[in-house]
């Protein structure tokens, strides 16, 4: 009897059989009590896992830079130059550390297996939050912009999600970081689901299984939730254009995140010239970054390392290594005001520019004058190499 009373105290929402034993919930995804024995505990842990770590990571970021400014310019300079992946990991761990006492408080009094299953679930969802927050942002952005009858609450929700999503996009802003982070989080979610599957009946198994499964499906659906990436230009009606080196879905997803947080892409494009009227030769520079001279208050762009030249065949879209001599290429430039902007629509207001050129700004018309190759850049973001046909 004493044992049953303890179980009733720990799991007050459990359905009991006539002989005083808890009824097994069945399948952890669909059977039994879906939200588990303690609704308040389930929702509390889910709320903390989704909301507190991102906000506290922003707080930690502000504290780190604030200390740098207080303790001296040298420390601030060091933080500004190195605060990238390691800074993200540090701030994320600080965010989890702030949420951990609340997780422990919510799981107090549970049996050992249940405690660590809940804590594993909370940690897995914390690190899945970048995908979930960004998915919510991209999925609800258009609805927020057009739902005038709910403008105030929807805007509050939108900006709250955007606040978390900016940190999330910073975490996933490069291909290697996205791959490493997503595989790590997916592994954590799958291990949690396997643990639940093999752990036997538990009164609150349904809640953990639902949370883990929802986060897993959210990450798998993430690449299809984010709208496709597009270059930073819009042509006039009837103007034909081509996108040199169109990214695949994953590459476009990374560039979309870079556009959101206004950070340069991993590579920039340099048009080198035309081998003939159908073949554009170019090369990429990768690993570039801004070099900042703090004493002189001056910055300049370091393009990184040049890649081997490649040739783009306009008629087929084929890209292959260029084996000829760069000295034989036909290279003549034109003024953007005459050979580009008349064929583009303004993206930045009636009096704003039609496009922002990339770091290599010189447009190159083809030898027959029918096409113009140039770079277009999102403001402070990634750039693309495109060409338009002159009517």
Question: In words, what does this structure look like?
Answer:
The structure is a single chain. This protein has helices at 2-10, 39-71, 73-82, 85-106, 112-146, 151-171, 175-198, 205-225, 249-260, 336-339; strands spanning 241-244, 267-276, 279-293, 298-306, 310-313, 319-321, 356-357, 364-365, 371-377, 383-389. The protein is α+β, with helices and mostly antiparallel strands. The strands form two sheets. Strands 1, 7, 8, 9 and 10 form a five-stranded antiparallel β-sheet that branches. Strands 2, 3, 4, 5 and 6 form a five-stranded antiparallel β-sheet that branches. The protein is elongated and about 80 Å long. The termini are far apart. The model is unreliable at 1-37 and 144-151 (pLDDT under 50).
Summarize the structure.
This protein is an alpha+beta fold. Helices cover 49% and strands 16% of the residues. Helix 5 runs parallel beside helix 8 (205-225) and helix 7 (175-198) runs antiparallel to helix 8.
